[in-house]
Every structure is written in C-alpha cells, then in structure tokens.
Design a protein that fits this description.
- Helices cover 28% and strands 24% of the residues.
- The chain is an alpha/beta fold.
- The model has no long low-confidence stretch (mean pLDDT 94).
Length: 534
C-alpha cells in the first residue's frame, strides 16, 4: 500500500474530499483508489483563520502492481510504499510452568498482561483488591457525594477494576516509540471492547470515563472467556519467597496462592505493598516525579486561544500542553489535561486528600482543567530512603485535607499570589466532583515549589492569553502524577526476587494508560517466550 504523509484538508471537509486529494497527490484517477485508511489525524492550527486536519493515510490501489510506479512518479518525500506490520505474540517457550501465573492489580498493565496470557493458554489469576468497575463506580460517586466517611480504602478512584485511569478521562497519548506494535495492539483491543474507532488515528486519543467503564468490563469478560480468572476484593498483603524465588502470595483473608510466576502490576498508589517490598529488601530506588495544583479555566477561553473561536464545533474542546523552566532550574508543566472536564477528589487514604482530572467522552463541561505541576527529586523528600517520595506525598495530602476541612481546597490564582484565603469565585465557576471549600493553598507546598509554580503560570500566561487570570481556580493537591519509586528489574524483566515481574506505572515503567498496557504486554511476552502453556 501507499502511505501519504501530510494530506491536509480544511476542517469540516466532506466525505469525498480525502479521496479526491489523495488521487491528486498520487496523480491517478479517483477510480484507481480501492481503499483509504486513516493512520493519524491531527489539527493544524498554525493559521487560526484556516484550521486544517493533517492526515497520514494508507492508500490501496485497485491494481496493487501499480503502487510502486505511482510512488516513483509522484516523486514526493511524503509518499512512499508502506508494508503493514501485525502484532504477534511470541512463540511459547519450553520451560515447564508448575502453577498458574498470578497478576496483582487490574489496572491497564494487569489487564493486558492477563489478556495476553489468557489468549495463549496460561490461565492466569488476576487479583484486584477493589471491586468490579460497576460497583466501584457507585462507591466512587457515593464518596464524592458524602465525603471521607464514605471512602472505601480498597475500592476508590485509585483502586479497583481499570486502575486509576478509569476516572481520568481515558487519555491514550503516549511518548513511547511503538517499534513493537504493542501500542497498536492496545488501541485495537480498546476499540474491539467498545471504544470509539477514532482512537486508532487521532493524535491525542481519549476514550472518556463514561465509555471506559464499559470497555474495562468487556476486556475482563474476554480474559475470563479465554481461561483466565479475575478475583475481586482480593488484597495481597505479602509476597512469599524461598531462596530468592517467589513462592506465591498471601491475601488479606489469610489464604495463600502458590505460584512461581507473579506479575506485580499495582498502581502508583499501592503504598502498603511498597512498604512490604521494602522490608523484604527487594531492590527499589526513589525517583523524581512532580506535584502541584489542578487549574481550571473556561473552556471557551482555551478554544479561543487554540482555535481562534470560542465554539470548537466539530473540532471538539481544545487541549493544550505547556512547559516551562524556572530560573532555579525546576521544570513546570501541564499534565493530564482534561478539555471540558472536572476536577475530582481522588483520595485513597483517610485524613489525606489528592485531586485528579476527568472528562467524559463528549468533553462538554464548561471548564478545561489540567494539573500544573513542579518537578521534585529525592533531594526534596523529607525522609531518606526508597519510601521518601511516599512520605512526601502523604504530608502534602494531609495538609490538603486540613485546608479543605476534608473536602477539596480551592483558591483563586490571584489570591494565591497575594497569599490570602479566597472568599468568593470570580467569572470562572468550579466544575468539581466531590465537596470543596475555599482556602489558602499557598500553605500547602514548600515555598520553593510555590515560587516555581507561579513562575510557570506567568510564562504560560504569555503563551495562552488569560492562563494566569486572577480568577482561575486552583485545587490541591495533585500528588499522584507518577510512582514515587522504581522497582528494579533485569533483562528478563524480573526483580531481585526471581519470578516476580514488576510492571506498569506503580513499578516505575509507565506513565499513563497506554504505556502501562504496553508494559503489561511486554512482561506477558517475556513469560510466554520462556514457559510453555499449562
């Protein structure tokens, strides 16, 4: 087939425009084109008075033998022959597998590892401390309505089927290079499970929290149909070993499951399990991450800046991405940007409060929100050692809980600059899931981080008009941006406890839904290539 890069069309183009443009670029009649497949679509907004869709497309001619000569005749660096590659699981290994593999955690990494092993005859057991996604969703909504007294410590925004990403818009963009085909496999699996097909080609794909619930449920059913077992309310309290080799896991009800193959695919908030691993002297190291505030602006303001129109129409609510470097050398940047979204209470421990952002598929809330976060390193942590980052997070979350009297503390940016508690909202009205209270967030983070945050906001205000407006609403604290530690693994993807495979975001090898799912596939491939099916 023929790949055309940079096929541009005006936003709002008709259904026949792509074929007409492709035929023109290839210098062939439209009738010579049998099929066009969109590979990637992005918005070219460099000229705000002429918004374009920029496509990468694969074209198949009716006469496949003519594709080579057509490319040669076109004589363009943006037109070439492309050979489509299909993702394939590795050939099963020969080592015997004595027990069923165990997977801890049903987030993206765990789900895709379980799916890969199930489809290849390994009958894994997937353990999740939280609830199935339907029950989990009801508990989360109950928590948002009633507050800390209704927090389920094991089934909440962080824990439960689907992982933390279930309540964060379902953004699927990743910076991981997809030389293996895993990214495509992940996206195709999501579409097969009910996600909109546009995620296969949009440059910034997202599923939407409301749709993701059904997608996660469908993937779980597929795992079960292929011979895997998914067990909820099954919290792992210990991982047992003998002579440096994993023996199995102990659950909170006292039961023991034996297995010499355990995938550790917990999320970045599995703090109790991190403590257990530390006591067992499993090699881990603290790592840098970032903390800050979630900032709300009117979505119309963002649309106007990005598209030169308040009503985005068929373009959908406009996203943004901003980065800055402070004079002191700290990075400040947007993270998990949610067009047309909500700020949500994402707590998982009593007396501590963390926030996140979420959008539904339509992204039709009146506000845009994003975490504006400041990089921190182990030198910033109050305690030395591998769990120093966890302690740093917890102290911030305890302050946030107190500042908001158990609800989300909010503050207008202008009041933050003046170090004064906010008394009332301006033109920007909060879009929040969970209770909230006006406060003074300047009390939350160390002043060095506050200064970096303000310096970043000032820079962003020069890039997006109104970004640093006084009535922009801050919410704290955004502390769960990524894992505060990394669990070491060798070239066979095992930790210092042989047979234990650290995986995904909690282990420090991913930074979002897609990269975590890809890492789950990667670990499953290692096990498939090493052992023969049961």
């Amino acid at each position: 087939m023929i790949r055309i890069n940079q096929l541009t069309l005006e936003v709002g183009h008709g259904p026949g425009a792509m074929k007409k443009k492709a035929a023109k670029l290839l210098r062939v009649p439209e009738a010579a084109i049998r099929d066009i497949k969109i590979v990637r679509r992005s918005i070219d907004a460099r000229k705000k008075d002429l918004l374009l869709f920029s496509y990468i497309v694969d074209v198949t001619l009716t006469d496949r033998k003519k594709e080579g000569p057509v490319v040669k005749k076109a004589a363009s660096p943006n037109i070439k022959i492309e050979n489509e590659e299909t993702y394939c699981y590795p050939k099963p290994g020969t080592e015997p597998l004595k027990e069923r593999p165990i997977i801890i955690g049903a987030g993206p990494a765990g789900l895709f590892a379980a799916l890969a092993l199930s489809e290849n005859g390994y009958s894994p057991i997937l353990l999740e401390q939280g609830d199935p996604v339907d029950i989990r969703t009801k508990k989360v909504e109950d928590f948002w309505k009633h507050g800390d007294s209704h927090l389920d410590l094991h089934s909440n925004v962080q824990f439960g089927e689907g992982g933390a990403g279930t309540f964060s818009d379902g953004k699927l963009n990743t910076l991981v290079k997809d030389v293996s085909g895993r990214n495509k496999k992940v996206l195709e699996t999501f579409v097969e499970a009910g996600a909109d097909a546009s995620i296969l080609y949009d440059s910034k794909p997202h599923i939407g929290t409301d749709v993701l619930v059904n997608v996660v449920r469908t993937i779980r059913k597929r795992i079960e149909e292929k011979g895997g077992q998914v067990r909820f309310s099954s919290r792992v309290t210990d991982i047992l070993e003998e002579d440096g080799k994993v023996l199995g896991v102990t659950l909170s009800d006292g039961s023991f499951l034996a297995s010499g193959t355990v995938i550790l695919s917990v999320g970045h908030s599995a703090r109790e399990l991190f403590e257990t691993l530390s006591k067992k002297k499993i090699l881990m190291e603290p790592k840098a991450f970032a903390v800050g505030f979630r900032v709300q602006h009117p979505q119309k303001m963002i649309n106007l800046s990005q598209y030169k129109r308040e009503d985005a129409g068929g373009l959908g609510a406009a996203p943004y991405k901003v980065t800055a470097k402070t004079r002191a050398g700290r990075g400040v940047y947007s993270f998990c940007m949610c067009p047309g979204g909500f700020v949500v209470n994402a707590s998982s421990e009593r007396g501590r409060l963390a926030v996140n952002g979420m959008s539904y598929f339509k992204r039709d809330s009146e506000n845009a929100n994003s975490a504006i976060i400041v990089s921190v390193t182990p030198e910033d942590f109050p305690c030395p050692g591998v769990l120093g980052g966890v302690e740093f997070q917890r102290r911030l979350e305890e302050k946030a809980f107190l500042l908001g009297n158990g609800t989300i503390p909010l503050q207008l940016y202008g009041d933050f600059l003046r170090h004064e508690p906010s008394r009332e909202f301006g033109e920007v009205r909060p879009q929040v899931c969970g209770g909230y209270e006006l406060s003074d967030l300047r009390e939350l983070m160390p002043e060095a981080l506050n200064q970096a945050f303000m310096e970043g906001m000032e820079q962003f205000g020069r890039k997006i008009h109104g970004f640093d407006r006084p009535d922009a609403i801050l919410a704290g604290v955004e502390s769960r941006t990524s894992s505060p530690l990394k669990i070491w693994r060798d070239e066979r993807l095992e930790s210092t406890m042989k047979g234990l495979y650290p995986c995904g975001e909690g282990a420090g090898y991913a930074g979002g839904i897609t990269s975590a799912a890809m890492d789950g596939l990667k670990v499953a491939e290692e096990i498939i290539g090493r052992y023969r099916p049961l």
